[in-house]
Amino acid sequence: MTTATKKGLQRYYEYRDRIAGLIQSIQESPEPNPVLIKFFTLVNEQDKRVIDCVENGKPLLSSWYGSAPEIYSAMDIEYFCPVDNILAHQPFTNDLEGMDAANIPQDMCGLIKLGAYGVEAGIVPVPTAIIAMLEPCDAQSAIHEAWKNAEGWRDVPIFALDPAYGVGTKDYAYFAGELRRMIAFLEDHVGRKLDWNRLREVIEVTNQQYAAWGEYNELRRAVPCPHNSFVGGKLGWVITQHMKAGLPGAVEIFKMLAFDAEQKVKAKQGPMPKEKIRVLWADLIPTWSDAFGGMLEQEWGANIVMDFQSYAAQYDPIDTSTEESMLLGLAKRNMAEVPMIRQARGKVDVMIEDITRIAKDYKCDCVIFPGHVGHKDQSASIGFLKEACRELKLPLLALTVDNFDPRYTPMDVLKRQVGEFFDAHGLGK
Amino acid sequence: MSESKSEALREFVEAAKTLVNPALSDYKKKGGKVIGMMYHFIPEEIVTAAGMMPYRMRATGSEGTELSEGYFTQVNCSLVRHFFDSGMRGRLSFLDGVVSVNNCDHIRRLYDNWQWKVKTPYMHFMVFPKKTGKEQVEAYREQLEGFRSSLEKSFGVKITEEKLREAIRLHNETRRLQRELYELRKADAPPLTGTQTLAALVAGTCIPRDRYNALLKQLLQDCRAEKGGNGWKARIVVMGGEIDEPKFVEIIENQGGLVVGDALGYGSRAIVNDVDETGDPLAALARYQLVDRPADPRIFGTTFDRNDYVVQQVRDYKADGVVSVRLIACDLYGFEQVNLSKHLKKNGIPHLGLEIEYVIDAVGQMKTRVQAFLESIAEAKHDNRN
After folding, report:
1. What b/e readout covers A275-302, taking b as 16+ CB neighbours within 10 angstroms?
2. What is the mean pLDDT of residues B164-177?
3. Which residues in chain A are closer than 8 Å to B338, comparing Cβ atoms?
4. Once rounded to an integer, what is the mean pLDDT over residues B228-242?
5. CB within 8 Å of chain B, chain A residues 83-102
6. Measured between CB atoms, which of B72, B129, B297 is closest to A142?
7. B195 with B13: CB under 8 angstroms?
8. What is the pLDDT of residue A1?
9. Rounded to an integer, what distance in angstroms lies between the CA atom of residue B98 and that of residue B61?
10. Whole-structure pTM value
């Protein structure tokens, strides 16, 4: 094992130990939350698998969301997203300061800047191969180009998935072709063969996982919403995109969440004494979501009942009868259902349709559009968004934030902006 | 070269300064149709083959973005905000149509907003793959076939294979002439400045093709009769995206640097290769945009080639340094300067990275940085001589 391949392990040891400590503290708390214990246990196992690959020279793939992770599992390839843990452990590191010192334009997305910094700084393991996803934004492409220019990563074989722009049968067929070419690339460069029967088994589990997530999402329509802001999306994103696909434990987490939500809906019980404002957050969940969600709840009795990271109009079960049907199903899921790739890829219509549907289905009182600095397409959709909200007769608050850098718009500024907005529209009175 | 010595050059410089030049006005008065190319990757040849004029959309002369503010935010680049503002003000109302691809995140939404609010009579959108490969060329060829059909249907024209081949030959002729112009810049005392060259290339996107080619031939003759000036502090290659503003180059040249070469979208990257004149013309056009011409960062996996291309320009044009430029808020060019900087350092080539807005007005700081960069090159050259 060379020093280069062992790069980044130190960080993974820290991640592993920190999560283990967190699990222990939850277990020892007066009311241990079984969902969180289960979730963090899966996270911990994921970190251990990455460490095992690096320590023992096993294949390890760098990947991105929306890349059909079921295929990796069916090929018995471990994978990780290089920026995932950097974001998850942000409060415990000085990575934001490191990012500032790196030579990266300030007007880019914090996630992208952190990802570029992490690889350049050597806090991320060097993978065996890279699968790049070229949607939903320009910066995804740019960050993978940056990685290819980083020390130790230049010679790592890479395959980029080029998603189509539309949502028709031909578009899915094109992306299914890309997935087929990705499989060939992995067979060549990682040396593992795809077992189609295993793929069928994995997809059958992820079908259950998405169905359970969908069921949970439906329960959040209840008034009052059974859980706090962002619950579901925060766990669901990690489980479905950044963890080994097809783990039965993942299905169980969504079922546990749904079960708990169902009991609360039956009891008409929400997470706060009185739910006064129901909010749609039209973007991904920020790294500072706990502070923001907590502030909404405590200051105004507001709950973000749905967000883009949690939402897909419908997670269709994938038909596992043939190889072709599985690839087509995976193509559709990853292009048209996985959050953000769903809303930001393609024309503006999907984003506006989703906002309209969520606002109605979830009985929202207002829309908060964070105006994340990295989501250039969304910011250029602000006219459409205003029009949609006018038609829905819903107040819209447009902010400018960095979803992945809490310093960009300080919490006290957000508090003032949100407070003025709620006051101006008489919300929560 | 002084503009008074070449009427062709004067016409090019004037055309680059405005949206509507006299030749374009004449063309419109005679009933000619003009199709706006919203940014790049769109084969102009198909429009020419349809008997219409392709026009690269710009917002030259834009004085503000007030009419964009309701549709874009400050995280969007100033290029799209000025484009949209110009569209809303009717500054581009001479266009009979607009065609675009899903270029960058800003441009693809510019198209959506344009369709919604500006409503140019004919609008067409194509999907451009994000990487190169056989399947991607096939996919884009199919999109071009759709564009051809759409033009035929909307304008009642017939775009035959022969017309496409003729158009390819005509546009290749333009590229060949433009390359001749670039060859002249390799001289120790080039007859044209970088500012004039960029103006000449920008003019090629807004003057009817036959006239443009004739003027270009005239300019080449004028240049061959001209001896260039000396006394520049350094020879510079500029690298960047779709910079349509010669003023940017002028700032470098006003500080004493002579821009002899470039890796710009309107510059050498648009002319260095020809479209294949044999075989299926639509496939050739798709392959040209995706594979043959030096790539823009919009096409994934092309950084190394692009960096090598810049170094090659430096060598071919005997340049002393590189100035790269990025439009603020452009993610595709976000890491380009970082990556290029590393590459140039390895090759011992001085580099200055600049960030600009689409409309260049606050030039004070830029001038200072350029001046310091040129001084450092001049000093290093002096030290090397001693």
Report:
1. bbbbbbbbbbbbbbbeebbebbbeebbb
2. 98
3. 103-104, 146, 149
4. 93
5. none
6. B297
7. no
8. 44
9. 20
10. 0.96
Q: How confident is the model at residue A73, as a pLDDT?
A: 97
Task: Return the residue in A382, A384, A391, A397 with the most chain B beta carbons within 10 A, the one to mutate for interface testing.
Answer: A382
Residue A413's contacts (CB-CB under 8 Å, 6 or more residues apart) are none
Q: Tell me the residue ranges of DSSP E strands in A228-359.
A: 277-281, 302-307
Q: Which residues of chain A have pLDDT under 70?
A: 1-6, 313
Interface of A with B in 22-41 (CB under 8 A): none
| Six-digit token string for B347 | 């090759």
Tell me what pLDDT residue A4 has.
43
Distance in angstroms (rounded) separating the CA atoms of residues A404 and A238 = 15
**Residue given tokens 């350049």 in the structure block:** A120
The residue type found at A300 is W
CB B7 within 8 A of CB B200: no
The CA distance from B105 to B111, in Å, is 10
Query: Could A177 and B80 be called an inter-chain contact, meaning their C-beta atoms sit closer than 8 Å?
Result: no
* H or E segment and range at residue A369: strand A366-369
Give the β-pairing of B234-239 and B257-263. parallel
Residue with tokens 């949690």: A310
Look at residue B14 and tell me whether its pLDDT is greater than 60.
yes
Q: Which of A119, A149, A158, A372 is the mutation pick for testing B, counting most B CBs within 10 A?
A: A149
The two structure tokens encoding residue B15: 């055309």
Nearest to A186 by CA among A210, A161, A218: A161
CA distance B290 to A141: 16
Q: CB neighbours (10 Å) of residue B224?
A: 10
Domains of chain A and any CATH numbers? 3-192 (3.40.50.11890)
Cβ neighbourhood burial of B314 (10 Å; 0-12, 13-18, 19+): buried
Beta-bridge partner residues of B235: B258
3-state secondary structure chain B: CCHHHCHHHHHHHHHHHCCCCHHHHHHHHCCCCEEEEECCCCCHHHHHHCCCEEEECCCCCCCCCHHHCCCCCCCCCHHHHHHHHHHHCCCCCCCCEEEEECCCHHHHHHHHHHHHHHCCCEEEEECCCCCCCHHHHHHHHHHHHHHHHHHHHHHCCCCCHHHHHHHHHHHHHHHHHHHHHHHHCCCCCCCCCHHHHHHHHHHCCCCCHHHHHHHHHHHHHHHHCCCCCCCCCEEEEEECCCCCCHHHHHHHHHCCEEEEEEECCCCHHHCCCCCCCCCCHHHHHHHHHHHHCCCCCCCCCCHHHHHHHHHHHHHHCCCCEEEEEEECCCCCCCCHHHHHHHHHHHCCCCEEEEEECCCCCCCHHHHHHHHHHHHHHHHHHHHHHC
Tell me, rounded to whole angstroms, the distance of Cα A267 from its chain centroid.
Answer: 30
pLDDT band for position B100 (50/70/90)?
A: very high
Tokens 């004085």 map to which residue?
Answer: B63
H or E element at residue A87: helix A84-88
pLDDT score recorded for residue A422: 98
CA distances from B190 to A97, A156, B255 (A): 47, 43, 17
Nearest-CA distance from B313 to chain A in Å?
A: 21
Cβ neighbours of residue A218 under 8 Å, at least 6 residues apart? Answer: none
> Is a pLDDT exceeding 50 seen at residue B338?
yes
Q: What is the DSSP letter of A227?
A: S
pLDDT reported for residue B230: 83
Tokens standing for B318? 């005997």
C-beta atoms surrounding A339 within 10 Å: 25
Q: Which of B340, B326, B327, B131 is nearest to A149 (CA)?
A: B340
ipTM above 0.85, yes or no: yes
**Other CB atoms within 10 A of residue A199 CB:** 25
Domains and CATH numbers, chain B: 22-162 (3.40.50.11890), 229-385 (3.40.50.11900)
